[in-house]
Amino acid sequence: GEVLTAGGEVKASSGQATTTEGEESGPQSEEDGTSGNGGDMLRAQAGGRSRGNVELVYEIMKEDEGEDRGPADSHRQLLHDRLTVMEDYMRQMHLTVQEQQAQGSLARQESSEIREALGKIADSMLTLTNLTERIADSSQTMCTKLDEAAQKVETSLVQSLLTAPAPAPAPA
Predict the structure, then answer these.
(1) What is the pLDDT of residue 164?
(2) Which among 51, 50, 54, 55 has a CA at the least distance from the CA of 74?
(3) Alpha-carbon distance 73 to 60, whole Å?
(4) pLDDT (0 to 100) of residue 27
(5) What are phi and psi of 18, to 5 degrees?
(6) How many CA atoms lie within 13 A of 145 on its CB side?
(7) 60 contacts 76 by C-beta, under 8 angstroms
């Protein structure tokens, strides 16, 4: 079997080789106290490996037996605290998403109002263009009528000059 020394090292007394971490390379016997859950605990302590998981399992087993719950309760409290932090984070993320959705909704409303205003401006420009075209048409019509009136006046002047009697000769 193996013997646990005061320094925490496992020494093989039956010629079995051990690694530096204290993990055996050969089979284990029941009576040497290093197999089963207690053996895992001893090997973990002897090897100096991280004992967190083994201790947690061991404490949960002790809890089932109704023994001291100290470390298991502290692990449970730590998990509870971490879950609380994650819940707070998720709640904050949810609020952030809601805030962004509200901002997006406001931006959509503003862009809708801008599109509406641009539509009104486009309608006004079209109306102004139509008015300008009408004014241009009216001006063209007025110019044509003025030209016709001037032509008539000129024609009537020429007619009156041609049909006018010759002036009387001045007396000598």
Answers:
(1) 76
(2) 55
(3) 9
(4) 47
(5) -125, 150
(6) 6
(7) no
Greatest C-alpha distance within the chain: 177
What is the pLDDT at residue 30? 45
| pLDDT confidence of residue 5 | 55
Instruction: Give the chain's residues under pLDDT 50.
Output: 15-27, 29-35, 44-49, 67
Q: Read out DSSP for the chain?
A: -EEE-TTS-EEESSS--B-TTS-BSS---GGGS-SHHHHHHHHHHHHT---HHHHHHHHHHHHHTT---HHHHHHHHHHHHHHHHHHHHHHHHHHHHHHHHHHHHHHHHHHHHHHHHHHHHHHHHHHHHHHHHHHHHHHHHHHHHHHHHHHHHHHHHHHHHHHSPPPPPPP-
In this structure, are residues 10 and 24 in contact, taking their beta carbons and an 8 Å threshold?
A: yes
Cα 145 to chain centroid distance, Å, stands at 69
Return the bridge partners of 18, or none.
Answer: 24
